[in-house]
Design a protein that fits this description.
- By secondary structure, the protein is an all-alpha fold.
- The protein has one domain.
């Protein structure tokens, strides 16, 4: 067992989430930074960038809401699986 690796993951909070690629919020942040870095010269370009940033903000809010719902549903699923296991065990004991 690599205790150093386990400790590092714990301290960085990586044990809370599975190891996977960047989250949707990380992609949204990168897109926002890219849009903000554009050299917008006309009013039309500025307006389009503002609309894009507003849409991106809405997407980020929706993403957070979906993540929260996912956590809730995952917890409910786990609880139901535990209840099912108890029922199956009690049925097996009869």
């Amino acid at each position: 067992m690599d205790f150093e690796k386990i400790t590092r993951k714990f301290l960085l909070g990586e044990w809370k989430r599975p190891a996977k690629g960047p989250s949707g919020l990380a992609y949204a942040r990168a897109i926002k930074e890219t849009i903000e870095s554009f050299n917008l010269r006309t009013i039309k370009e500025r307006h389009r960038a503002e609309v894009a940033l507003e849409n991106l903000q809405s997407m980020r809010k929706d993403y957070r809401r979906l993540e929260e719902q996912n956590v809730i549903l995952t917890e409910e699923n786990q609880q139901l699986n535990e209840k099912l296991q108890v029922l199956e065990e009690s049925r097996g004991n009869e």
